[in-house]
Structure formats: structure tokens, C-alpha cells
Amino acid sequence: MSHDSTAAPEAAARKLSGRRRKEIVAVLLFSGGPIFESSIPLSVFGIDRQDAGVPRYRLLVCAGEEGPLRTTGGLELTAPHGLEAISRAGTVVVPAWRSITSPPPEEALDALRRAHEEGARIVGLCTGAFVLAAAGLLDGRPATTHWMYAPTLAKRYPSVHVDPRELFVDDGDVLTSAGTAAGIDLCLHIVRTDHGNEAAGALARRLVVPPRRSGGQERYLDRSLPEEIGADPLAEVVAWALEHLHEQFDVETLAARAYMSRRTFDRRFRSLTGSAPLQWLITQRVLQAQRLLETSDYSVDEVAGRCGFRSPVALRGHFRRQLGSSPAAYRAAYRARRPQSERPGDPETPVSHSGPAGVPVGLPGHGPVGPVPALCRSARSGRTAARPPP
Description:
Elements: E1 3-5, H1 9-12, E2 21-29, H2 35-46, E3 58-63, E4 69-70, E5 76-77, E6 89-94, H3 106-117, E7 121-124, H4 128-134, E8 142-143, H5 150-156, E9 161-162, E10 168-171, E11 174-177, H6 180-195, H7 197-207, H8 235-243, H9 251-257, H10 262-273, H11 277-295, H12 300-306, H13 312-323, H14 327-336
Parallel strand pairs: 1-10, 2-3, 2-6, 6-7, 7-11, 8-9
Antiparallel strand pairs: 4-5, 10-11
């Protein structure tokens, strides 16, 4: 799944200025960046594949800071160009950033801002989104990054509408993607946007990857409790919510337990987790349902009740939106991939049953938690879409 807004009206009207050319792609590299992610745009845009029907781009590899650039594995790279070469590019790609906790060089941020002002398309792959956010290019926009870093991106840059469900987000003149493989997805999307489906398909065949992937990052979301939450006063409320997911309560209940108004609670919760509390609660219920479908023989109706959904219909709707399939189809596909001896009901397989509180025995006491989406503004409509309560 991708948030694909081929162009917001304002972005569509932008034209390249000066000596920038649409076919020139600049890739901005930094010391400490991962070699795999950095190589993706170099391979997609830097190799001549005209014999396969892929139009040629002109690649400029630029150092975002003084070299040599040291990358993973102890390798040293020397980029043939510096920041000045970005002034010729119609597309600028930041494939990764070395640390989500350290600020990028101001000179590089200035170059990105200037490129955007002059009509260039700016792309951030994976942690490259942090560089775009530091430059202010994601303010008020939908964006994504690797699910593991999404809460940090949302917390550090609250004006960015972070959606960790998406493989990539196209907001017209600024684009972002999730982890490594999603960087390939976004680069293929750029080729498709520039030159059509046939060219993107030809490139995908050369790379031996699917031209389009269905689904999003939901299936990869971790369920561990974010480290930063433990020292916050709201941690107790979060822990209570996770232990009582089988009960039907809403965000008003959580705000009351925190002795806060709903508005104050929403603001504090979002600053802590990077997510709106309603979205967080829905996601936790879906993750709990996912776990029960995998580890128990409860019917879908029973799973809905044990995860606090008001009805099986509510479970099915939220489950499909987050995981791309119905609960029944998810269970069938999950079991089909597992050996017979590991399936629920087999004598050798421990089956999760509910304890006194209705929480599966054997699950961590704090329950499943993962990075969850903030509301995402559609570039087409300019509206923020809210989801129904669980």
C-alpha cells in the first residue's frame, strides 16, 4: 500500500528553475550511512538500461559533508561531487541518515531547501526522512519512514503527519519511503511517474522485484513497549489499557485515569508516542486480535469480544484496514504457512488461553505495542481523515 498523490495542485504547478534538468538525479550521501540503502538509488538511476526499455537518467553522487565518507563495514567512499552539484538536479534523493538523534549538516539542509524552492523533487528513503524533516520540507505534509523510527519522527517533528503503515508516500514534490525494500518501491514509483508503467515494469524485471507490492508496513510492526515511555507518568495509563484491552473503554476513560482533560491527554499522549490515542488504541486491539488468531482456536466473534471491539463487524473493518485481509483469511493464511505440528490444537503446541482478565496467558503483562499511525493528510483533498472508534 502506498499513499500516492501524484501531485497536489500546488506541487503540480511547480517548474524547474535555472539550470536544473528533470533527467538529472542527485543522490546525497553522508558519512555513517548504511551502504545497502545508499546503493538503491545509485542502482536504479545510475545504470544505463536503455536496451531494456528504461529511459536513462543522469546520476550525480554528491557528498553532503566533507569526505571521505565512511559507511557500514568500514568502507570509505569518495563522492565525485559536492553540494554544489545539487543545483543541476531535478530530483534530489537522500537515501539514509546516520543517526535519528543527531542533526544533519546545515549546509546540506540549505541545499535541500534551495533545491525545493527551485522546483526540484525531493526524496527521502527510510531515515532520509529525518533529513527532509530537519530541513522543514515535511512540515504539514504526510510522510513515512521505517516503522521502528516513525514514533521518533512524529515526536521530534510534530507538524509532520507521520503514517508508518505506508511503504511510501508521494506528496507531489516531496516523497518518503519506509525501510530498505520500500526504497526500491519508491524508486520504481518515480520511474513509473516519469516514464509510465512499461518502463517501470522493465526496470522491475531487471532488478528481479515486483513492479508493485501490495500491503504496507503493518505486518512488520514490532509489539514491544517503546523504551521512552517507561519513565513518563502516562506509562501507568498505557499499561492499564494494555491489560484491559478485552474491556470496552474509550479515550475518555484513559484521560480520566490520567486525571486530564481529553484535550490535554490527547496532546500529552501524542507527544509521548507520536500517535493520536484513538489510533493507538485501535492498533493495540488489532494486534491483540492478530495474536489470538495466530495462537488460539477462538472464533472470530470470540476474538472480537476478547479484544474489546463492540462487534465482530468492527473487528473486521479495522483488521482489514490495518492488515489488508479479513480475520478469517489472515488465520487461514497464517496456518497454511506453518507445519501441522505447530498449529493450535496440536498436543505439542502450547495454545494461548485467557486468564482471569481475558488476556492470553503467556503474553507479556504489558501486551503488544507497536509504532502506530498519526493522522495522515491527503495531498489531494487537504483534509485529515479520521477513523471511526473501535
